[in-house]
Amino acid sequence: MTIGLISRPRFSGHETFACRFAWLPKAVRLIDQNPAGLSDDDTAMLELGLGKNMVRSLRFWLEAFGIARSGAPGWALLPFGEAVLGPEGRDRFIERSETQWLLHWRLATAVEHPLFAWRHIFHRRIRPDFTRSELLVEMRQEGGREGFDHSDVTLLQHIDVMLHSYVGGGPASSPEDALDGPMVDLRLIRTEGRRSGIGARSETVYALSRTSIDEIGAAVVDYAIEDFWARRRKGESIVTFRDLAYAEGSPGATLRLADDELRDHLERPGKPWAFRPTGDAGAVMMARAPDPQTRLLAVYS
Questions:
Q1: Which residues contact 252 (CB under 8 A, 6 or more apart)?
Q2: Which residue, of 164, 170, 225, 281, is most buried by count of CB atoms within 10 Å of its CB?
Q3: Residue extents of the structural domains in the chain
Q4: Which pLDDT does position 248 carry in this prediction?
Q5: Does the pLDDT at position 175 exceed 70?
Q6: Once rounded to an integer, what is the mean pLDDT over residues 243-249?
Q7: Which fold has domain 216-298?
Q8: How far apart are CA 102 and CA 216, in angstroms?
């Protein structure tokens, strides 16, 4: 099976490191001061206080979150990174929970080069609970169907980085690096005891949590709706409720929202869309072109 270049998923590049809390603000500051500095290993290591592999991992995460991109003459912030973490950004040091939810949203809904483990866990599998070895079997099979032949080592490293991103407990080489990443506080993935896995070996059971709009913030959900519409349903004036609740990269699936709560949110007045119940699903009509960047700024108003 031939995989299109634009949608080709990523299995590696993070150098086995989950993103740490301090990395993104420090990288954005370096980009602002010296756009070419992040491209040079020695300069980046000196300025950021990280080892070479961590610097490479940080570059990966900047692109995976859609915060910055490498080019000529150096790195540059993208609109999302500029608005949130830039010199005049709304939350330069990731102090607000809304920013943590937005980072999760950006990471789990990438259209270009999605992270394979994120896509599989949040959008492809049905059961909310899993073990590490169960994920390995599933991802090996799914990757094979798409024409990939990655080793179990590569897949397990990718799984571990995903788990450390939400559960924490990754390797640390300094007190700063011992801090968990910006998505651990969301508690989107929790541990639920142990069970016998492949080979009858007892393993930790992980499960996706349900969340509420009160936890996430209504403005973040509004942004997710418009961002989903703009990136995955571009040019369409009507989107089904089922799409918003269950489709790959949708607000419902990515933010782990209950159907009833998402439906109630869509029916609230004062939004640029109108919800029309039809059968057991319903349709949502947008009165104007979705504008996620303006909606992003409203998160911090």
A1: 244, 245, 246, 259, 262
A2: 225
A3: 216-298
A4: 96
A5: no
A6: 96
A7: Arc Repressor Mutant, subunit A (1.10.10)
A8: 9
